């Protein structure tokens, strides 16, 4: 454990990073400074691993439900999955005003995957890192909540943005998409005003989409770290448990918001405007 609360918090906010060292060799970063020096071409190993683990777990649970589906004797897992399915399906029906069979399964995947990644925040901050084998000379870094890494949230937001651009051009045509940017909201005569405004609005979508999820989850994790670093053990439980119970609402709400923004953006891509 770090010697001071500040060192403890900084240590737990550092990702396990793999990249190229200053001497040209490749490997894991031994300190936050080494991770910073690796620059853009580096991989947060913990973010990648836990994202894949939670994604595979989501697929396994839903595959098991699909294979063991029973109308007469539904199990507990099936009941929960059916509730989630109906919830997402109703959200799509309410907010998506086009025809695309991809939207419902995409929304279900986004909601469940982000919820499971967020749920990792309820595991005690030191539990899993202490289970990881620590090689000599390698710092014990391990962030288990992928959504507290802006690279993960921004990557998901960029994927949604790519789909938005694809369906905007597919549905409206390239000319229609450009016209929507050039002639909205003030008409053709003020296209020189419309283009900067619409371009900023367009580019801000993946930023707001990603930073909203990242900011809320990062703040929640930081509060857990502050409780652990600054308070005696017996007081930690008095504060951590109520915060964890409240944080369940935050976890669910952030997954829901990300899903709803995905649905709304793709609905906008499928809508046709007359200019």
Description:
The chain has helices at residues 5-12, 32-37, 45-67, 76-95, 103-119, 127-131, 150-183, 191-230, 233-270; strands spanning 17-20, 26-28, 42-44. It has a three-stranded antiparallel beta sheet. Helix 3 packs across helix 5 (103-119), helix 7 (150-183) runs antiparallel to helix 8 (191-230) and helix 7 runs parallel beside helix 9. Strand 1 and strand 2 (26-28) form a beta hairpin. The relative contact order is 0.13. Helix content is 69%, strand content 4%. The protein has one domain (47-137, 147-270).
Outline the low-pLDDT stretches. Answer: none
Number of domains: 1
Give the SSE string. HEEHEHHHHHHH
What topology, given as strand order, has the largest sheet? 2-1-3
Share of helical residues = 55-70%
Radius of gyration: 22 Å
Query: How far do the termini sit from each other?
Result: 62 Å
Counting DSSP E segments of at least 2 residues, the number of strands comes to 3
Produce the secondary structure layout:
Layout: H1 5-12, E1 17-20, E2 26-28, H2 32-37, E3 42-44, H3 45-67, H4 76-95, H5 103-119, H6 127-131, H7 150-183, H8 191-230, H9 233-270
Antiparallel strand pairs: 1-2, 1-3
Helix pairs in contact: 1-8, 3-5, 4-5, 5-9, 7-8, 7-9, 8-9
Short description:
This protein is mostly helical. The chain is 69% helix and 4% strand.
Characteristic terms for this protein:
275 residues; mainly alpha; three-stranded antiparallel beta sheet
């Amino acid at each position: 454990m770090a010697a001071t609360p500040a060192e403890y918090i900084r240590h737990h906010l550092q990702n396990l990073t793999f990249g190229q060292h200053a001497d040209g060799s490749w490997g894991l970063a031994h300190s936050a400074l080494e991770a910073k020096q690796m620059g853009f071409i580096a991989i947060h190993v913990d973010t990648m691993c836990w994202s894949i683990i939670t994604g595979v777990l989501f697929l396994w649970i839903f595959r098991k439900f699909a294979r063991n589906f029973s109308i007469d004797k539904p199990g507990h897992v099936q009941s929960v999955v059916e509730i989630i399915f109906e919830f997402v399906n109703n959200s799509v029906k309410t907010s998506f005003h086009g025809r695309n069979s991809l939207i419902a399964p995409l929304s279900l995947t986004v909601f469940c995957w982000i919820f499971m990644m967020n749920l990792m925040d309820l595991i005690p901050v030191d539990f899993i890192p202490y289970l990881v084998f620590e090689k000599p000379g390698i710092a014990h870094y391990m962030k288990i909540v992928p959504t507290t890494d802006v690279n993960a949230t921004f990557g998901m937001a960029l994927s949604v943005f790519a789909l938005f651009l694809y369906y905007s051009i597919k549905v409206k045509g390239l000319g229609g998409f450009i016209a929507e940017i050039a002639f909205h909201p003030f008409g053709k005569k003020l296209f020189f005003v419309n283009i900067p405004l619409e371009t900023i609005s367009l580019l801000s979508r993946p930023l707001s989409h990603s930073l909203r999820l990242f900011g809320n989850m990062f703040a929640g994790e930081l509060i857990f770290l502050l409780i652990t670093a600054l308070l005696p053990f017996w007081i930690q439980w008095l504060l951590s448990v109520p915060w964890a119970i409240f944080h369940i609402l935050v976890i669910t709400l952030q997954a829901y918001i990300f899903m709803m923004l995905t649905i709304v953006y793709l609905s906008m891509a499928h809508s046709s405007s007359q200019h």
